[in-house]
Amino acid sequence: MRSYDFAPLYRATVGFDRIADLMDRVLSSDVAQPTYPPYNIEKTAEDAYRISIAVAGFTPEELTVEVRDGSLHVSARKEADETERSFLHRGIATRAFDRRFALADHVRVTGAVHEHGMLHVDLMRETPEALRPRRIEIARGADIETTAVEAKAVN
């Protein structure tokens, strides 16, 4: 696997630190990608998304959903079981996990629902009015009232 050096990007740009850090994290080969718990990311509308995470065996009280530092953190800690149980086969994994999702600018979490062993986290991209495209009205030359500016001499 190739390794990329983003030092020139840091020297030549201002304000793109987050993008460079994200690319550095994605391209680093020493970080193993976690596979537990399985999840889906779907686009539910033009600016709406849903992350569905399989959390079988966890109650809503054992799950934590937080947004901090531009990323979504979903974690679970299983409470200690008071009853001593003997399993013949244990196929449902209920181990603790911490799953992180990097959020784009202007994406916010609108809610989370736990149902049927799935945790659904809904997200919405809200583009600020200042960043939305605006249509500029084009005036005709006859519609514009011209004003003359007098020039003054400066000594």
What do these coordinates show?
There is one protein chain. The strands form 2 sheets. A 4-stranded antiparallel β-sheet has the order 1-2-7-6, with no helix packed on it. The chain is mainly β and 155 residues long. It contains 2 helices and 7 strands. The mean pLDDT is 81. It has 2 domains: 1-33, no CATH class; 34-82 and 91-128, Immunoglobulin-like, CATH 2.60.40.790. The N and C termini lie far apart (69 Å). Helix content is 11%, strand content 32%. The longest helix is centred in the N-terminal third of the chain and has 11 residues, at 17-27.
Sum up the structure in keywords:
Immunoglobulin-like, mainly beta, 4-stranded antiparallel sheet, elongated
List the helices and strands and how they pair.
Blueprint: H1 7-12, H2 17-27, E1 39-45, E2 48-54, E3 63-68, E4 71-76, E5 97-102, E6 107-115, E7 118-125
Antiparallel strand pairs: 1-2, 2-7, 3-4, 4-5, 6-7
